[in-house]
């Protein structure tokens, strides 16, 4: 189920980061890199330009609810 996938990802993030809580942008970058995708590939899959995705990952822009649902 989607809940299991989200919880598994969250647990993986905590184990990789030594329990350090990451920002939303850092979690998006971690997910993208874990999937082995470039900014362009990941952006295409969720309907964002690479520059917009980069701004989210760096904390310049916030992740919207629609972006979250797309991910």
Structural description of this entry:
This protein has 71 residues and is an all-alpha fold. Helices cover 69% and strands 0% of the residues. 10% of the residues are buried. The model has no long low-confidence stretch (mean pLDDT 85).
Globally, the shape reads globular
Cα gyration radius (Å): 12 Å
The number of helical runs is 5
Sheet with the most strands, sense and barrel status? none
Q: Give the low-confidence spans.
A: none
How are helices and strands ordered from N to C? HHHHH
Distance between the termini: 15 Å
In short:
This protein has helices at about 1-15, 25-35, 40-45, 50-60, 65-70.
Summarize the SSE layout with pairings.
Layout: H1 2-16, H2 24-34, H3 39-46, H4 50-58, H5 65-70
Features:
71 residues; 0% strand; globular; mainly alpha
